[in-house]
Amino acid sequence: MIKIPGKSDILRASEIIQPYIHRTPVLTSETFNKLIGAELFFKCENFQKAGAFKSRGAVYVVMSLSDAEAKKGVATHSSGNHAQALARAASIRNIPAFIVMPSNSPQVKIDAVKQYSGHITFCKPTLKDREETLQKVIDNTKAFEVHPYDNFSIIAGQATAAKELLEDVNNLDLILCPVGGGGLLSGTALTTHYLSEKTEVIACEPSGADDALRSFKTGKIIPSVNPETIADGLLTSLGKRNFPIIQQYVKDIVTVSESSIVAAMRLLFERMKIVVEPSAAVPFAALLENKVAAKTKRIGIILSGGNIDLKQLPF
Amino acid sequence: MIKIPGKSDILRASEIIQPYIHRTPVLTSETFNKLIGAELFFKCENFQKAGAFKSRGAVYVVMSLSDAEAKKGVATHSSGNHAQALARAASIRNIPAFIVMPSNSPQVKIDAVKQYSGHITFCKPTLKDREETLQKVIDNTKAFEVHPYDNFSIIAGQATAAKELLEDVNNLDLILCPVGGGGLLSGTALTTHYLSEKTEVIACEPSGADDALRSFKTGKIIPSVNPETIADGLLTSLGKRNFPIIQQYVKDIVTVSESSIVAAMRLLFERMKIVVEPSAAVPFAALLENKVAAKTKRIGIILSGGNIDLKQLPF
């Protein structure tokens, strides 16, 4: 896809990926509604295949390749959920996935990629070495590069989570979505613009990794430098394809503290009985911190993923 | 209700409680299906109001009371999920709930009952003192006693979980259900008999609390004496109203080890991304232990609850 996905592109993506992903449930909690004074609808992408919304974009890209392209496999560098999602998507089409991972990646993430038969090449944990190593892998294999977010087909795929949410819950005033590289956010903002124009989209970001907010305010992409947050899925800088979409269709970006991310996670575990990773708890943290005008509104929240080491819960 | 609930009683219970409970989702996992070699459908009563299926029966009893009965409130002794569920149900109807709790109840359970405005009377942690204290409370208040499982209306209420499961998933070969006092099990067995006669119901029990198995094999209720298991929801003995239903409609009872209960819990947290209490993990433990002939079957599993202290995870 070489241009911003239109409504028909997102509907097509939704149809193509449907056999290979979960239509995740939307959960509600009376307790949370009382606590926030609003009606909250949680779209549980933590239950998604491979544990995160990333499976949507990855499956869409892999299923959209021509047979000739697919034959040589797909490649990316990632230490996170995109690595697992791409390895799984490739395994469904029975093509190789070449994943460049930093040598300090958690064992649990390495194991997950291996479980889906991904071919791992380790590199030094710097962006430069990740990119150079990936280039070498692609030179050798001619595999198709799949960027985790700066890719219009990925954006169309991630957009399908909000599409399902808008189908399942009518009259939302607001959708809250975490922002890292901006794949989920730009997809969510596009879908919402196409399907429910009166619904606003607000992005939520850790204050220790507030490059998206600063980019949004200044009108140019400000790279994420030494971000510090427990929300390990939100460390990356905005992509150049994602940013203009976010500028046009996202209403605002708010930031949250580390302590409220942990408090939000804990409430989601204890009261909603679900396992979420820190990044997924960021939008609910924004509500706990009163960073969003929420009273009496109907609010959709995208819980982005649930991949976390249970031995290292922060509460 | 003075006799075994019929099909129409269960359908009526389902209709009456519907505005006050969650229709909980059914989750699936490709990974688990591969692991067990079957198709598994998990009915997530851990997401139920007050964190367990107990809300179904409690709401049904409370909503079925006449205004005259209701006025004086409801009463029970419980240190577990029934206490919270009954307090919540009473709060919906705006009537008092008198809950007798052993003095050694976990603070988290006491807090939950208080949150729903339950009136707590503490007693010594023996069955004798629980029953005597409850009798005194009832003598003083004239409140309506709601036994946690040995009550036909409670059975009709708990039966609605399997009703929803059978509506959402067709052609189940088997439903697996944990057994403690037998409220959920007798309800599940009745619904399944009425709505899907070819579906078998198998109960799962910790081997350290195997009174249901021994009762089932000998044909008379054998009380649970000094049960030892992490599954704190399954410590009680079978009720006299529950046992005949179980004898007639349950195909078999299987037992599982403590280590496989913990392994099952851990898999449910890590792979299904859900919080379950140990009792809820018992049926999946039976599959992990190969205690049930599962291969190629379509199997429903009732995950009974999710109330657990996250500071004390056993893995």
Note down, in words, how this protein is organized.
In chain A, helix 9 (183-195) links the parallel strand 7 (174-178) and strand 8. In chain A, the strands form two sheets. The first copy, chain A, has a six-stranded mixed β-sheet, with helices on both faces. Chain A is of the alpha/beta class. Chain A has helices spanning 7-17, 30-36, 54-64, 67-71, 81-93, 107-115, 127-141, 152-168, 183-195, 211-218, 242-249, 258-270, 278-288; strands at residues 26-27, 39-44, 74-77, 97-102, 119-123, 144-145, 174-178, 200-206, 252-256, 298-303. The radius of gyration of chain A is 18 Å and the shape is globular. In chain A, helix 3 (54-64) runs parallel beside helix 5, helix 5 (81-93) packs parallel to helix 6 (107-115) and helix 8 (152-168) packs across helix 9 (183-195). The first copy, chain A, has two domains: 7-52 and 155-312, Rossmann fold (3-Layer(aba) Sandwich); 55-145, Rossmann fold (3-Layer(aba) Sandwich), CATH 3.40.50.1100. Chain A contains 13 helices and ten strands. The model of chain A has no long low-confidence stretch (mean pLDDT 96). Helices cover 45% and strands 15% of the residues of chain A. The A-B interface holds A 22, 25, 27-28, 30, 46-47, 49, 51, 266, 269-270, 272-276, 306, 310, 313, 315 and B 22, 25, 27-28, 30, 46-47, 49, 51, 266, 269-270, 272-276, 306, 310, 313, 315.
